[in-house]
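DM from R.C. (forwarded with permission)

"hey, sorry to bug you on a friday — could you get me a structure for this? deadline for the figure draft is monday and I only need the backbone to look sensible"
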Amino acid sequence: MLKKATLKETQELAHEISLKVNDGNIILLNGEMGSGKTQFVRFLCSSLKVKDRVSSPSFIIMNKYETSEGLEIFHFDFYRITDIRDLEEIGLFEILESKKGLVIVEWANMFKSLFVKEKNIIDIYFNFIEDNINLREISIQR
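My reply, with the result:
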């Protein structure tokens, strides 16, 4: 699916996706810096009724949230990762193997090969629209 979306439409899309995700799902987010990845995560977590403040894990690599229903959300940012061992140290592989919680990865293309065998993936790309800073082109693949 490919669509052009305003901020409000991005929020609505995040809500639609929130109705379809659960334990074991993986959401891969890609796009240029500032294209809306973290904002999408905020919208998604809001729809899922996350109790905590949602922020970009750019420097700490992973944030963990919990919804009011008890769903754990593991929010990763691969932008600063240069060595796969860093992902092992923070427990990514254990989380993926457990199939528990919702895993969200910003800058997933940095280590795309980690997810080729995974099921239940939603792959989302955010692209800027030339000459319109208020729109994004959003591509979703399952």
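R.C.: lifesaver. Residues 7-18 form the longest helix (12 residues).
me: no worries. The longest strand covers residues 132-141.
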